[in-house]
Specification:
37% of the residues lie in helices and 19% in strands. The protein has 406 residues and is α/β, with parallel strands linked by helices. The protein folds into 2 domains: 148 residues, Aspartate Aminotransferase, domain 1 (Alpha-Beta Complex); 235 residues, Type I PLP-dependent aspartate aminotransferase-like (Major domain) (Aspartate Aminotransferase, domain 2, 3-Layer(aba) Sandwich). A hairpin with a 4-residue loop joins β2 and β3. The strands form 4 sheets. It has a 7-stranded mixed β-sheet with strand order 4-12-11-10-7-5-6, with helices on both faces. A 4-stranded mixed β-sheet has the order 1-2-3-15. Bound molecules: pyridoxal-5'-phosphate (PLP). The site of pyridoxal-5'-phosphate has 15 residues, from α5. Its EC number is 2.6.1.11. InterPro entries: AcOrn/SuccOrn_fam, Aminotrans_3, Aminotrans_3_PPA_site, Class-III_PLP-dep_AT, PyrdxlP-dep_Trfase, PyrdxlP-dep_Trfase_major, PyrdxlP-dep_Trfase_small. This is Acetylornithine aminotransferase.
């Protein structure tokens, strides 16, 4: 079965919402993946910051296989140890990064990022009571495609065709503390922010912004919900991006990198948000599935045992400095932290760069028209980074020669 044949079958059988993906992948090993025509790629995207340990990592394979063989599913009607251990591990990691103590911390498991944010949305409404229903969110932010998460998403083009959502949302500019201060009052249940806007093109806020969000939420009684679905679990060189700022949210949402490729999301509540749900308030048949929890435990264990936080920080800096040092005229900036970088282009040529990079054997992503996203497995090596940065000037030259595609 060639890529062309698979794409034709995809087009006939799958809904058109994704368009036709340009590459059909068959298998992977480490940081390499192969397409249906036998071409090999260095994977610098990790399935959108998901495959933290790369492909076929022995710890993940063993954890998943052993758990699938022993007990693949329980539903939430029964306790199993994997979910308890994973929740305890996440609580420990949140606490370890908090200088001043956290109070109570508890976890709800979902199956995706959107569902983790849906849980957060219900949690903050439950904690706030009926008088506080407004949510403040950010322009350009992304929180998911389900109706609640989409209502909070600051991208009118993907949101507005599906409204109204029955949710009162105020949008403010990302990183603008003064605008946030004006928008948040005692009618607000919560503020939803990303520490760095991922889908908007790896856009950080100024240092100190999260501390201001914390202060505004404390002053008004709104919950501070931090969406770390893309930034969390080692991606930035910290367990969670907020730990670099020394700021604690009230609610933390996680997903992408947590399961290393298995679907799992988590909504972590701190302080009074740890226990704001009463029995019966929320649920998920698959959430906290034993196989997904086993995968996530393998991811956390491997990040810790192999020192992958320090590696992400160091290799991410190498990646950024090599690209910057090449001084290519198409590149105006390399943003982000750890192994999560946005290459800002001087022209809307990101889609062309993505295509040319694939032709040279590298998977990267045009996250916006003029930003290329690089988010490789946390297991990537120095040699593999240099293989990419060595090839990049030629890729950019080719893309620059043909700038804006139709
Ligand atoms: C990907 C993402 C989501 C949505 O996660 P899904 O698993 O696709 O539902 C939400 N928030 C952020 C910041 C994300 O990057």
């Amino acid at each position: 079965m060639t890529s062309r044949e698979l794409q034709a079958r995809f087009d006939a059988a799958l809904m058109p919402n994704y368009g036709t993906p340009p590459i059909a992948l068959t298998h992977g090993e480490g940081r390499r993946v192969w397409d249906a025509d036998g071409r090999r790629y260095l994977d610098l995207l990790a399935g959108i910051a998901v495959s933290s340990l790369g492909h076929g990592h022995p710890a993940l394979v063993k954890a998943v296989a052993d758990q699938a063989a022993s007990l693949a599913h329980t539903s939430n009607l029964y306790v199993h140890e994997r979910a308890v251990r994973l929740a305890e591990r996440l609580i420990g990691l949140v606490r370890a990064g908090a200088a001043g103590g956290t109070g109570d911390v508890r976890v709800f498991f979902a199956n995706s990022g959107s569902e983790a944010n849906e849980a957060a949305l219900k949690l903050v409404k439950r904690a706030a009571g009926a008088g506080r229903r407004t949510i403040v969110s950010t322009d350009g932010g992304f929180h998911g495609r389900t109706s609640g998460a989409l209502a909070l998403t600051g991208k009118p083009a993907i949101r507005d065709p599906f409204g109204p959502f029955g949710l009162d949302v105020r949008f403010v500019a990302h990183g603008d503390a003064a605008a946030l201060r004006d928008a948040v009052d005692d009618s607000c249940a919560a503020v939803f922010v990303e520490p760095v806007q991922g889908e908007a093109g790896i856009l950080p806020a100024d240092p100190g912004y999260l501390a201001e969000v914390r202060e505004i939420c404390d002053a008004t009684g709104a919950a501070f919900v931090l969406d770390e679905i893309q930034s969390g679990v080692g991606r930035t060189g910290h367990w969670f991006a907020h730990q670099a700022d020394g700021v604690l949210p009230d609610v933390l949402t996680l997903a992408k990198g947590l399961g290393g490729g298995l679907p799992i999301g988590a909504c972590v509540g701190l302080g009074r948000y740890a226990t704001a749900f009463a029995k019966g308030d929320h649920g998920s048949t698959f959430g906290g599935n034993p196989v997904a929890c086993a995968a996530a435990l393998a991811v956390l264990d491997t990040i810790e045992a192999d020192g992958l936080l320090a590696a992400a920080a160091e290799l991410g800096d190498l990646l950024a400095s090599e690209i910057t040092a090449a001084g290519h005229p198409l590149v105006t900036e390399v943003r982000g932290a750890g192994l999560w970088r946005g290459i800002q282009l001087s022209a809307p040529a990101a889609a062309t760069v993505q295509t040319r990079a694939a032709e040279h054997g590298f998977l990267v992503n045009a996250v916006t028209a003029d930003v290329v996203r690089v988010a490789p497995p946390l297991t990537i090596t120095r040699e593999e980074i240099l293989e990419f940065t060595g090839a990049l000037p030629r890729i950019l030259d080719r893309a620059a020669g043909e700038e804006t595609p139709a």
